[in-house]
Amino acid sequence: MFLSRALPLATAVVVIVIVWQLVIAIFRPHISLLPPPVIAAQEFWTLLASGELFLHTGTSLARVFSAWTITGAIAIPLGLAMGWSRRVERIVDPFVEIFRPISPLAWIPLAILWFGIGEAGKVFVVCVATLFPTLLSTIAGVKRIDPVLVHAGQVLGCTDQASLFCKVIFPAALPSIVVGLRISFGTGWAAIIAAELVAARSGLGYLIANGMEILRADKVLVGMAMIGILGVFFDAVFRFLHRRFSWGEE
Amino acid sequence: MIGTAKPLSLRGIAKTYQSKTGTPVEALAPIDLEIAAGEFVVIVGPSGCGKSTLLNMLAGFGEPTSGEARVGGEKIQGPDIDRGMVFQSYALFPWLSVLGNVEFGLERKGLAKRERRQIAMESLRMVGLEDFAGRAINELSGGMKQRVAIARAFAPQPSIILMDEPFGALDALTRRFLQRELLRIWQQHKKTAVFVTHSVPEAIMLADRIVVMTARPGRIRKITALDLPHPRESTSERFRDCEQELYAVLDEELAKSFALG
Lengths: 250, 261
Prior knowledge:
The structure holds 2 protein chains of 2 kinds. Chain A is 82% helix and 0% strand. By secondary structure, chain A is mainly alpha-helical. Chain A has 2 domains: 1-30; 38-244, MetI-like (MetI-like fold, Orthogonal Bundle). In chain A, helix 2 packs across helix 10. Chain B folds into 2 domains: 8-82 and 159-260, Rossmann fold; 93-157, no CATH class. Chain B contains 7 helices and 10 strands. Chain A binds chain B through residues 146, 148-149, 151-159, 163, 167-168, 171-172, 174, 247-249, and chain B through 59-61, 78-81, 83-85, 87, 89, 91-95, 104-105, 108-109, 136-139, 152-153, 156, 162.
């Protein structure tokens, strides 16, 4: 199981390094534009040993986690209500339709104007990026519930809305909610890097932007590699959660 | 108050739907039917005769357009744990184990953990699945799922059991087996049972009385009381006679429903 996933990944990494080395051999770019893999690996090690990489990674992750948690706390209850009640959906849906197509990155300038370059602005941008995937998946999860499950809950004693929600609607929608949380973590992770590229003094996005400014492509590459590594890691975590919460269906 | 079978009384109960185009569709014409406590009534009829509509109203899903149904003198208003139901698609909760499903209604009734475990295990033993208590729902076959659903419906001791083509999705052998299982369980618990099917042999195998419905709008075409002793053999002469009689009526109704389009 683990090997069947790890092996193709390892192969891909080897192929990337080979192609990278070939590009260096053929085009001979200046070291500040594209350093060879060994130099990048050395820089990775230096940043790791100095703790700098942990600091930047931790900062970015903390921003994503806090925003993702905030929007989850809003989007899951709201999505349940919108999926269950036609009336709530009719009221809220127009707002969703208007704001959803606006890329979270388009909010970065306003976020800087409103919140400066501190934490709040970045968390705000990630909130915009994580809200809609969670919300839409939750709504879809409720709408896809087989009505017969609701009926079964009712004849087994869930005769009031509250118990029906807790005992039937929520667990029945949970697989879809987990999918939404997985997608929104991905969009949030992409958005935080963008927000940090523009205005930050810490975080992986800052590491990359700073590397560019001081003509250190190796730092840029280290930042990018870290983003990729964490992406793979969190995808595995969410894959596990999804299996755990899909009750053997699909 | 719970545990004993109760009589079911249908008085002029009818249902008319609004179709999507706005024209009213009469699914069920006013029906009068008295079902005695502990009686096993099977409703048969062609597709779309309103038999499932009728059962859903008895469960409390959706109000009748006119008339009313009473359980032991009390008017049905919304679903209640005193009226259990077994669905064709099992309707088990996949996020709960087999035991969790059977305990669900008991927990809603406010039983303490030990007590509900004991009753749930008893119910599972009744359907022969006590060794599967810890299994996940999606590990079970269709026949096993329906046995869990039967255990789940009987566990809270409702006074009426409603069954909507419960064996419709099962293969012939499993079906035959579960019909006998159901009869055995019903004879043990003596609940009032209303069972909807479109299978004539199934109706004859199970029923005290068979209610034959007409094509849409559904009304009662014929009520047949069966005094055949259990276990009934589908090869016996009386079984065959009964079958032929019912098929003759149903063929007529089917022809009518095809003529209607």
